Amino acid sequence: MSAATKQIRQILKGHRCLDIIGRTFVKSGANMSSEIEKKFALPRRFAGSEKSVWVEYIQLASEYNPLNLGQGFPDFPPPKYATDALAKVATGENYMIHQYTRGFGHPRLVAALAKLYSQLIGREINPQTEIVTTLGAYEALYSTITGHVDDGDEVIIIEPFFDCYEPMVKYAGGVPRFIPLRLKSEVKGRLPSSGDYVLDPNELESMFNTKTKIIILNTPNNPLGKVFTEKELVHIADLCKKWNVLCISDEVYEWLVFKPNKHIRIATLPGMWERTLTIGSAGKTFSLTGWKLGWVYGPANLMVNIQMIHQNSVYTGVTPIQEAAAIGFETELPRLGTDECYFISMPKELEKKRDYTVKFLSDVGMVPIVPEGGYFIIADWSPLESRVDINSEKDKYKDYRFTKWMTKNVGLQGIPPTAFYSVAHKPLAENTVRYCFMKKDENLAKAAEILNKWKNSK
Ligand SMILES: Cc1ncc(COP(=O)(O)O)c(C=O)c1O
């Protein structure tokens, strides 16, 4: 055998070998990957929360490039003093502002928050023990829910609800119990208002039992815009006291309330301070949602549970952002209640945007539910049903089909409100769409133009 042939055989042998090794590898790789899949699947307690309306609709917007009234943030600048403060903090001489700050809240910020809420609540709030600052109201909700819900605890959630409440309760081992706001009686001769949506008092009472640990309240409510009245809050408070239940009050839209409605902090009702944890957001307060700064305040004995979760999950918030937000509050504190105060001027501006949005939605034939607060509006699109080919979309719920069809064919994006309901109550919202009106006037005018053009094209 020539040296060359020997070499070729050697190579082929090598190839056979490689082939066998390769096949074995592929086979064991396949086993391995299914084993990996099995062992590293999403933990069971998170099951059911894989689908996110936000992920899906951001993707939809990037594909079809509609005018986006879906996402809940302003498309105009925040107050100048806030961005100036951040710039000054970032480039100032105090380089220690770029290092970790106190875990439970940057001292200058908790001092400002304590000053503000002591006035609003009518009792002295201790900045050291009665406030924790967090990474957005999201983390405030997470640390508050995780820090208080035990296995099997029942948590009452009022629908429609900010969509993370349900998964957060489940992650903590709790059992969500849902109660929807329902239209109290047929509305004739005017548009419905978010105030027409109420909890049935008997149904509410029937939700409470010895396993009830928490009720989550959101006033003003996202997405309906309902501002709970004193009477409604007193009923909730009485049930909380009767059944020894904690109230988590998500008040991120506390300043965005339209006249003549008034934001009432449930913590101020008799006997409620000791059983209420109230959540706020700098993102919503100063129109800068990207800062992701939130807080919780409440009695010290309940705050310790929140501190525990916070210290072991995020430990501390972003120092420069907290410093700049503190400057923001220090700017507003002396002018609280006056016309120059952003917390007064912003809702006035927003009310005009609300009215404009109500008008252009009505003009196209939808029936908007006029919100009393917040920056979202829900509208019934069913009068337009014959003009939309929603069945060309494949989703289970009609509002998903409607919003997708509108995004693709009309160029205006909203959010499907069934995302804010439990499975049992989704049918209540299938004929509706949610739009955000915290947008530049020119973009709201564009939305009006898009809808008007569509109306006239049919
Ligand atoms: C009702 C409600 N709670 C909490 C949050 C979260 O706020 P943040 O952006 O401060 O995390 C939002 C945000 O849209 C909200 O609408």
Per CATH, the superfamily of the largest domain is Type I PLP-dependent aspartate aminotransferase-like (Major domain)
Number of helices: 14
| Shape-level CATH architecture of the largest domain | 3-Layer(aba) Sandwich
CATH topology category name of the largest domain: Aspartate Aminotransferase, domain 2
Task: State the share of residues found in helices, binned by percent.
Answer: 40-55%
Structural class: alpha/beta
CATH class designation of the largest domain: Alpha Beta
Q: Which cofactor or ligand species appear?
A: pyridoxal-5'-phosphate
Total domain modules = 2
Taking the alpha carbons of the first and last residues, their distance comes to: 86 Å
What is the rounded Rg? 26 Å
Report the uncertain regions: 16-21
What oligomeric state is this?
Answer: single chain
Beta strands, count: 14
Mean pLDDT: 93
- How is the largest sheet built, in terms of strand order? 2-10-9-8-7-3-4
Largest sheet: 7 strands, mixed
What is the overall silhouette?
A: globular
Q: List the secondary-structure elements in sequence, H or E.
A: HHEHHEHEHEEEHEHEEHEHHHEEHEEH
Subunit structure: Homodimer.
Family: Belongs to the class-I pyridoxal-phosphate-dependent aminotransferase family.
Keywords: Acetylation, Aminotransferase, Lyase, Pyridoxal phosphate, Transferase
Pfam family, one: Aminotran_1_2
